[in-house]
């Protein structure tokens, strides 16, 4: 019988109580040792619902007392850097929810710190664990289509209520078992940006996972449409090596879309995660073998990142969504927000570190 991995959770808000706490409790290889949150009402509600025995208002006290091997950080975006840095300094493996950080310099520091400490830093991009995403990455990295030349990335989703500080109208006891997100996603000092930091970060993580590209410069426009944060974002991007692309989406969707088109020297692929399809065309016709049988899809996509943390610590798996991917996503979005604030001026990634 394998040992159980001691895992602590920092944050007892919506996503923690909806996804990570129940996933850890259901994982036979995980021992959820404690949960922390400075909001005592949220912490008490989570403890009552999930029968948690040990809770802490201060995550530092929790880490010192419980000595976990790994930690899952599910806190407001603006707190990610400080909390993750502290955990890595305590030599603890980390699964950090997206976006990794709000600023590129912070993301770089965390990647370097994890490397220096010999600890895994996993970013909560669950799409990167999907068989379709892995197959797309395999095709691009094989070189059969040649080098990428143009990418088109779109994510359109329904989060306008979250960005307004309300719960989604379709919310129910399944999606909000303990409590909803409240107003956190409508507050810049907590969330940074809106559609970009809440949703497009998923798309960025997927793009860099599949392609291995890195941004060189960004020109972006964003519109809040009366909300505290951006609702619609549009970007033109130049990647290193001369690859060009468009990247954007809306948080006011009535038909959802999450797609990644990669056009290369000798063909291209179209990954559509809403439709659940991956198609490709090369110089000799359609690319065969891109279909993923339904039984190969994970039973529950939401459990993949916490499971990966446990499996990595046990030595059973490699990091499926490493910090470098999160860092590249932060670079893109950091530059995009700076560009939009300057009316669409080009922002070079190098300037983020000046």
Topology:
Elements: E1 5-10, H1 14-26, E2 30-36, H2 40-50, E3 55-56, H3 59-66, E4 70-73, H4 80-89, E5 93-96, H5 104-117, E6 121-123, H6 131-142, E7 148-158, H7 160-163, H8 188-191, H9 195-211, E8 215-223, E9 232-239, E10 244-250, E11 252-264, E12 267-272, E13 277-282, E14 285-286, H10 304-313, H11 323-341, E15 347-348
Parallel strand pairs: 1-2, 1-4, 2-3, 4-5, 5-6, 7-10
Antiparallel strand pairs: 7-11, 8-9, 8-15, 9-10, 11-12, 12-13, 13-14
Keywords:
15 strands, nine-stranded mixed sheet, globular, 354 residues, alpha/beta, 25% strand, Rossmann fold, 11 helices, 34% helix, Dihydrodipicolinate Reductase, domain 2, six-stranded parallel sheet
Description:
This protein is an alpha/beta fold and 354 residues long. It folds into two domains: 5-126, NAD(P)-binding Rossmann-like Domain (Rossmann fold); 127-297 and 322-353, Dihydrodipicolinate Reductase, domain 2 (2-Layer Sandwich). The protein is built from eleven helices and 15 strands. It is globular, with a radius of gyration of 20 Å. It starts with a strand and ends in a 6-residue tail after the last strand.
